[in-house]
Amino acid sequence: MKIAVIHTTPATIASLGDLIRSEIPNAEVFNLLDDSILPDMNGGYRVDWVRERWLEYAQIARKNGAQAILSACSTVGEFAQEANEMLDIPVYRIDEAMACEAVRRGGVICVFATLASTLEPTARLLKRLSQKQTQFCEIRTVLVEGAYDALMQGDRALHDEKIRRALAEQGAQANVIVLAQASMASAADGLPDEICAQVLTSPRLGIEKLRDDLAALDGEKR
User: Fold this and answer.
1) Phi first, then psi: what are they for 37, rounded to 5°?
2) Taking a C-beta distance cutoff of 8 angstroms, is the pair 158, 180 a contact?
3) Distance CA 92, CA 94 (A)
4) What's phi and psi for 144, nearest 5 deg?
5) How confident is the model at residue 29 (pLDDT cuts 50, 70, 90)?
6) For residue 66, pLDDT beyond 80
7) Of 105, 72, 64, nearest in space to 91 by CA
8) Distance CA 122, CA 75 (A)
9) How many CB atoms lie within 10 A of CB 194?
10) Does 112 have pLDDT greater than 90?
11) By the 8 A CB rule, do 185 and 179 touch?
């Protein structure tokens, strides 16, 4: 099984590759990285150009033999949905399984992100799923200032600490806490039990969905 992962930051390459190979032992993983996407999306002035090249990356992955594509970035998740409708192979967004679980739990869902460009796409996904499931959800958003800069400077410890501090300060009123970006998952380690039970991260849930869906497709072919 050849799986392409499209990244917008190098921070997700090793962790997602390891997780895919642990959950899908026969997977051959290859990565495409464009680290100019997030600056473009965060500025909000080159969104059409980002969409155009992301869809092209998906087509390149297909031509390179990918049997499935995973978008590792929540900010561009809606482009992954579009690619899924265009291509004859499945295209997954890393955060969809997390969002489904958040909506299933319902109540007040607080979305934390380290990039402003991620908040609205994640909130839109949650709203769409809540309407589809006719589940009441109140969606709130929190931007964790400075965490992404720390990560890009190689200081994951500071990145994680800023997120944990924000969770402690602003997550108390939430029924569900969503860490919107895959790169934020490490911040969930070591949280107090009462907070940890509320927190959802995308990597494991997203890869488990990928594994289960691909197994089902393989079963149908047989």
Assistant:
1) -65, -50
2) no
3) 6
4) -90, 100
5) very high
6) yes
7) 72
8) 7
9) 8
10) yes
11) yes
Q: Sheet with 28-33: list strands edge to edge.
A: 28-33, 2-7, 68-71, 91-93
* 75: Cβ contacts below 8 Å, ≥ 6 apart: 8, 37, 38, 41, 115, 117, 118, 121, 181
CATH 3.40.50.1860 domain extents, the chain: 2-94+204-221, 96-202
Transcribe 89-106 into DSSP letters: S-EEETTHHHHHHHHHH-
Q: What is the pLDDT of residues 163-217, one digit of tens each?
A: 999 998 888 889 999 999 999 999 998 888 888 889 999 999 999 999 999 888 7
| pLDDT at residue 44 is higher than 80 | no
Answer yes or no: CATH 3.40.50.1860 is held by domain 96-202. yes
CATH of domain 2-94+204-221: 3.40.50.1860
Task: Using alpha carbons, select from 179, 183, 205 the residue that is nearest to residue 98.
Answer: 205
What is the reported pTM? 0.91
